[in-house]
Specification:
Elements: H1 14-20, H2 23-26, H3 30-46, H4 52-71, H5 83-95, H6 108-143, E1 149-154, E2 157-163, H7 164-189, E3 191-192, H8 208-214, E4 219-220, H9 224-229, H10 232-259, E5 266-267, H11 286-309, H12 322-347, E6 349-350, H13 352-360, H14 366-374, H15 380-397, H16 406-412, H17 420-423, H18 426-431, H19 441-455
Parallel strand pairs: 3-4
Antiparallel strand pairs: 1-2, 5-6
Helix pairs in contact: 3-4, 3-6, 3-8, 4-5, 6-7, 6-12, 6-19, 7-10, 7-19, 10-11, 10-12, 11-12, 14-15
Length: about 450
């Protein structure tokens, strides 16, 4: 019989019971459900709402259930309505009438709100550790390529020279922002809804501050209606996860391009690529393609949560049961992508020569050619036009700015002298971009120092 029976004169329809049940997906919160119940039982005893003896028996019973679930000695009942009812029913089976006292001054509404916060608090930390590991992996890789010149792009066209280290550190900055968003989400969600009851608190003189403290929360939630109906933290976390996936997807797209024969900037380790069933020459970057696809899936989870909540009146509504599958799916997929992406980066091979060759044929030192004239007194717009004209001449003659004869430079303006070749040397172009945050080795060293300090890495 359902634990909420009493008002009803007959058993619930079997089909409705299956439709209503959430044990299939909320069972993963069993540790957090039991953790919350132990804190609640402890508080009930300390506040003398139940006897100390009953409180101790409840705690012992709950600890036994946790141990048996962890070891596999106890299996989840698929016929249970949810994890909360399963644990309470098992506790009552073990402790008899004492087990029935656990739910005093508590509702499933504040119980599920508590469990989900506890669960997601742990999951945020797990995701955070993976993002931090990714940042450290990128920093280690960047340190090896501070002198590896590659094209920087706008509109996917060669634009200006950068280094591979500079490019990687741009992604580090994205993922550092992701860490900040995860931290912000964790901070805002760290308030305890337990004690909100169904929606209007309780007539018992409970100690909400005690349960909040026992469970590691900063404080109880200030309003009982908000305590049971708030799912902002799920939406905020799904948003942060979506941004992580967006960054992974952008990075994946570049890796897919870099693996192609047209680029060949990198080669993935055989352990992190797949082949074709019909084309023996193929080596496909399937991991990164799948990350792009899973990005859409996590976006869908965010949209599910936003749409689910948009029309709900206060307080709890059964619609909110749909929060768990969406946020669980988002968390699971982000962790899976990060766990696969990191070792793929660690094992890939970087082709410096191909990067350098792409820089040479892309005329990405044209801006430096214009800057050369500006530094000799010519207005930038005039210098820009001359540089563009020289590029057009090079294309027509099959030359580069480095191989264009000096006399052709001087036909444009006598300001060009032999030192122009040093000024437009690609390595010189990179080293000359000394502004803070730029690609020069000194600027990159400053970026690396700041990032390593933030990540707690040794200098």
């Amino acid at each position: 019989m359902a634990l909420w029976a009493g008002r009803f004169s007959k058993e619930i329809d079997a089909g409705v019971n299956t439709f209503n049940s959430s044990i299939a997906f909320d069972a993963r919160m069993y540790r957090h459900d039991i953790q919350g119940s132990i804190a609640h039982a402890t508080m009930l005893g300390d506040c003398e709402i139940i006897t100390k003896e009953d409180s101790a028996q409840l705690v012992t019973g709950l600890e036994g259930i946790l141990a048996d679930l962890d070891s596999g000695a106890l299996e989840f009942d698929p016929n249970a309505e949810d994890i909360h009812m399963f644990v309470e029913a098992e506790l009552t089976r073990r402790c008899g009438d004492v087990g029935k006292r656990l739910h005093t001054s508590r509702s499933r509404n504040d119980q599920v709100a508590l469990d989900l916060r506890l669960y997601l608090r742990d999951e945020i930390q797990a995701v955070r550790e993976l993002v931090e590991k990714l940042c450290k992996t990128l920093v280690t890789l960047a340190q090896q390529h501070t002198e590896t010149v590659m094209p920087g792009y706008t509109h996917l066209q060669c634009a200006q020279p950068v280094t591979f280290a500079h490019h990687l550190l741009a992604y580090v900055q994205m993922f550092l922002r992701d860490l900040g968003r995860l931290d912000d989400t964790a901070k805002r969600m760290n308030e305890c809804p337990l004690g909100s009851g169904a929606l209007a608190g309780t007539t018992y003189h409970i100690d909400r501050k005690q349960t909040a403290s026992l469970l590691g929360f900063d404080a109880p939630m200030a309003n009982s209606l908000d305590g049971v109906s708030d799912r902002d933290y799920c939406i905020e976390l799904a948003d942060a996860l979506s941004l992580i996936m967006m960054h992974l997807s952008r990075f994946s797209e570049e890796i897919i391009l870099w693996c192609s024969w047209e680029f060949k900037f990198i080669e993935l380790d055989d352990a992190f690529a797949t082949g074709s069933s019909i084309m023996p020459q193929k080596k496909n970057p399937d991991i990164t393609e799948l990350i792009r696809g899973k990005t859409a899936r996590v976006y869908g989870d965010l949209q599910t949560l936003l749409t689910m909540m948009k029309g709900l009146p206060l307080a709890y509504n059964k619609d909110m049961q749909e929060d768990k599958e969406a946020i669980f799916d988002a968390v699971d997929n982000v962790k899976l992508c990060l766990e696969t992406f990191i070792p793929m980066l660690e094992t890939m091979r970087v082709n410096r020569d191909n990067m350098r060759a792409a820089v040479a044929k892309g005329f990405i030192n044209a801006t430096d050619c214009a800057d050369y004239l500006v530094k000799k007194g010519m207005p930038f717009r005039d210098a820009y036009k001359i540089s563009g004209t020289l590029v057009a001449q090079c294309i027509e003659q099959g030359l580069t700015l480095e191989t264009l004869p000096l006399e052709q430079y001087q036909k444009m303006t006598p300001l060009f002298t032999e030192d122009v070749y040093a000024a437009i040397n690609l390595e010189t172009c990179v080293r000359g971009r000394v502004s803070e945050g730029g690609p020069s080795p000194d600027a990159v060293a400053q970026q690396l120092g700041a990032v390593k300090a933030r990540l707690g890495m040794e200098s």
